[in-house]
Amino acid sequence: MQKLIQRLANLSAIGMFLILAMGALVTKADAGRGCGDEWPLCNGKFVPAHTISSMIEYSHRLVVGIVTLILVATFILVFRYVKRKDAKFFISATVLMTLIQAAMGAMAVVWPQSSLVLALHFGLSLLAFAFSLLLALVFTSWGQFQRDTAIRSSFKAIVWITTVYSYVVVYFGAFVRHTVSSGGCSGWPLCNGAVIPELSGSTGIVFTHRIAALLLFICILFLYLQAKKHYHDSDKLRFGSKWSLILVSLQVASGAVVTWSMGNEVAYLFTGMIHAVIVACMFGFLCYLCVLTLYDRKA
Known about the structure:
Layout: H1 2-28, H2 52-81, H3 85-110, H4 115-138, H5 153-178, H6 201-230, H7 236-260, H8 265-294
Subcellular location: Membrane
Main location: membrane
Membrane topology: Multi-pass membrane protein
């Protein structure tokens, strides 16, 4: 039974990853209205017409439905056969975030919503993926969160502040997409040929996101340097910090590529999805570090 639960947990994490990536594609391809203003039907049909936008939107809905069924099965089995309280919390949080984002997605189709609310949809998807990833890790060696040595209070604070701030940056990035502001800054690292452009309209939105992303890179770099200074090479804190730094570096680079790919629709969609996927992985590692700090055992 434990092997079955582990497989379902792994499928849940993979499924949430797909939902997040496909959601980013829906936004980038402007396919959110591909099924009109109907839900769960798509333009009045269970099987939609073969238009690109309708297939993208309907595929996203289909994957959400399948993953939700997997999550329900995982939820039941975890609560019946798994004793660890953290596993029960992770699956409960995953199911809750998934249901809320599914409801928000349905409402966004039937009742058009503001960009602020639509951006939150991606934020909830990100949380759902992070919780599902933590659940999958519970059944691996990386899921042994208990420690034999103490964690510095200052390091705990850095981890949590950085993670919360990263969520804000990711949310703002989703806001950029939903307001279709990406074209506000042409070129990278300069914005419209200036170090500090005129901060109005879409230019101000994109430039603010760039500054926020730069500050996030600095925060994670500082986090890694602190982990390197105080914890040995094999410590999970150092491992997680190192990969957070690698991924935030890739995030910055992919953001630049997204900007450079404007004008090529296919490249723009592909690089936009890659950017969202890297962000999700980075946030997952930061959440893993947060969980490690909760299992601190005094030396």
